Amino acid sequence: MELTPFTLEEAEEIREDFEDLVDTEFKIGTSPVMLVDAVVISPFDATEKNGFAERYYTTRDSDEALSQYSDGEYDVMLITSEADAETNYSYIGIREFAEIRGIKYEFPVK
Prior knowledge:
Blueprint: H1 8-18, E1 25-26, E2 34-43, H2 46-59, H3 62-66, E3 74-82, E4 85-93, H4 94-101
Antiparallel strand pairs: 1-2, 2-3, 3-4
């Protein structure tokens, strides 16, 4: 399945729907136990997403990290850290997380 980008309005609605995940733990397969630090709107493009994540890890401010992005195609991702090693950060796209965890959610499709 090819993913399609969200509009900013769609991304904000999705982010709000999943914000209750903040401060919850999860485990996928053999990964360490992860803690959801934030649910954020991010750029859709993978390269832009990596830059956004680096800026977010530095500033801890999703608005500031997103301020350098102007393409208009968005995604939503979870910023996570290992529950036992809070300096080991990573991120996972919301659609991938929902699929892996079996969460039923009607994501907008264009």
